[in-house]
Amino acid sequence: MRGRTVVALAAVLLVIVGGVVAVTLGGTAGDVSERWVSDTGTSIGANHHAVAAARIGDGGLVYAPVSGSSDTGECRLAALHASNGTTTWNVPVPAEHCTIHAVADPAVADFDGDGVREVLASSTTEELRAFHPTTGDEELSVPLSEYGYTRPAVVDLDGDGTAEVVVVDVDGSVFSYAANGTLQWRQNLSGTTYAPPVVGDLTGDGTTEFGVALGTSTVAVFDAGGERVWEREAFGESVGWTASADLDADGTAEFVVATTAGTVAAFDGATGEVIWRRSIGPFAAVHAIGDGDGDGDPEVYATNRAAELRALDGETGTVEWETTLTNEPVQMTPPPSLGDVDGDGDVELVAPTNDGLVSVVDPVDGSVIGTYEREVSVFTHATLADTDDDGAAEVYVMYGDGRVVALEVSG
């Protein structure tokens, strides 16, 4: 049996977040090698927010949301050099706000239209802040009603050519801010929110909508002005992960949810009607959607607590293949990410498991084609980004001890 760091923290099982990656055709990979391990370790073993990574100017940077023990100086947003993992800047969270949820998943986006992609993240200081990507200088600070848990979205909701920053705090309050910090609208859903919001043309009207799913089972879509397009219940089950994509080639995106009770379901983005629903086992999780097998139709890649990974047909929810990622006892299993990690022009799945294993999986048939192991728990999905501009995405994994591991996959 592999050694592992076991964290008996039931809440972590409920609060992992997801997203969406758009991709094309599947492929193969070979060796998975460790490039570096960051020095951002903390005294807790339950860090569970994914990093952001991007090519910034002539170099790559990785932004790590680091949580630590209460009332310590361990909590911070750390910017790491993608080439070697050394820290280039830190923004600390005050000790009185340092907790397991100190900094939420960051986003990298040009929110103010100045041509520079900033780093945005919310935290237990009950605010959303934006920082210059290379210096860490603060460029925006706006209040929330509670601490933020999920990645903010930077998107031109109203089609006026300027971006809005939309963020959901852990209590289900949705805020839309202009780039200058002006609050444009706020909606209160009044329910714990762990799943990330989804953004896209969900209604097919040519505008962008914003979707939210709650731990109370509420699923809702808002238009650019903050009005509810529709609101539904996810079968009375707590939603922990979400994703969105056009699953049926009709030109509009569907809203995919995964619940702690084990349901994965696709809602029609325009009406909220359930297109399909499938039970895959407790603590279902989704993150990536794409045509991994090259058949012309997208797949939804979903995991459950037992480390079973399934490819579900995007249009019907039918299981195309399934595989078990580890036989070790685990508390939960993060969903996989999808991208070209070996630079061959095809995509692979990168699937961490709670026991510290990271597997590269062929999306054509679910076969494992490369692994990496570190004996520390993982509670969130991997981040894939081509930070060195070589045509292949590097793999960045936040481990429970607060250290980020950078992996490289060779074909």
TrEMBL record:
InterPro entries: FAM234, FG-GAP, Integrin_alpha_N, PQQ_b-propeller_rpt, PQQ_rpt_dom, WD40/YVTN_repeat-like_dom_sf. It is a single-pass membrane protein. GO terms for cellular component: membrane. SMART domains: PQQ. Gene3D superfamilies: YVTN repeat-like/Quinoprotein amine dehydrogenase (2.130.10.10). It is found in: Membrane. It holds the Pfam family PQQ_2. Residues 261-409 form the Pyrrolo-quinoline quinone repeat domain. Keywords: Membrane, Signal, Transmembrane, Transmembrane helix. This is PQQ-binding-like beta-propeller repeat protein. The lineage of its organism: Archaea, Methanobacteriati, Methanobacteriota, Stenosarchaea group, Halobacteria.
